[in-house]
Amino acid sequence: MRTSTAFGVDIGGSGIKGAIVDLEKGDLATERVKYLTPNPSTPEPVAAVVARLVKEAEWTGDLGATFPAVIKNGVARSAANVDKSWIGTDVDKVLTDITHCDVTVLNDADAAGIAEARFGAAKGVDGVVILLTFGTGIGSALLLDGQLVPNTELGHLELDGYDAEKKASSAAKDNEGLSYRQWAKRVQRYLRHVENLFTPDLFVVGGGVSKNADKWVPLLEISTPVKPAQLLNNAGIVGAAMAAHEKFTE
């Protein structure tokens, strides 16, 4: 009988976080540990941080890892906010070799999406759900009746001549010194664009800025209901652990 825990690692452009996850509760079973993403964020030093997290947790079982890229069969087909040398790299093999664990890799927003569908804001919601993570960029997860359609990358939709995330990410808010009200107008324009393309039944908004959802979500005027992610910044870790435990593949 398989245990109901797995180790989740969330690899991002600024930080790499990890914890053991209780898969029955959808919550962290140990304290989350975070280290800064190395600069440059090339494969070897990033993998070394993951190995450190695993070693410090004394973990030897299933290991799930998110990665900010399109992931096909464990291989990175893009590289968002990490070094471009990752493109074409077998992320699964790199992490398996250094940790000696059975590793499963998936896109970071996809991991958050499956976690929210199982344990969070999208639990029990039928139809089309789109989770969007607002951070350094905009990550996306598209779910149909709780099942993931992987690697959608909706943050890169063109809007007003730009990648949407260049104007509507939380990084854009911080870099341009926008108020929540100013930034919410940009988010609203972006959401309406996505709404017109997919006609979703629910938007779930995550990323670090979701902890302040009360300051901007009520300002949005769109037809689709919008809910803040319930797992907040732990969604990626939980989703990665779920994927490893269930051997999720696209």
TrEMBL record:
It comes from the Bacteria. This is Polyphosphate glucokinase. Pfam families: ROK. SUPFAM superfamilies: Actin-like ATPase domain. Belongs to the ROK (NagC/XylR) family.
